[in-house]
Amino acid sequence: MNWTVERIIIIAVWTFSLIGLLIIPKRHRRKAQVAFLFQQFLTWILGLIVVQNGWLEYPVRELKHNYTSLTFEIMGYPAIAVYLNIYYPAAKSLWVRFLYIMAYPAGITFTEILLESYTDVIRYHSWNWYWTFLSIWVTLQLSLVFNRWFFREKKGVQE
Asked: Where are the transmembrane segments (predicted)?
């Protein structure tokens, strides 16, 4: 195996994501599973659309004939969405919820900008950082709405 920086990053994301999923408290596991699967569904479809349209590419990836990033779409991002969903401060003020929901896409977007600038993990073509931020923000919002609906939570009330 060729141990490039890109391969190390991919392995690290899988490792940290798996550990993050394994340490989820038992009381949150059902909500975590729903959030994880829902986010995989969304990002897999959107990732295929983005790559097939040539807006971005993943030069270093896990599978030769799958041009999307399994690391991001199947493991990393869904694992992050799990934590957003299980620790979302639904009972807090609008300002706290706003900051919470903005912090996730901001952190992911900043990381992606660094990866795009300094590695071959991702390359933008007609894509830009603000599309990443917007798509992540929207999909995380959808994840919160779906999870609330799935568990029939009332607004502002969380388990």
From this structure: 6-24, 36-55, 67-86, 98-115, 127-146
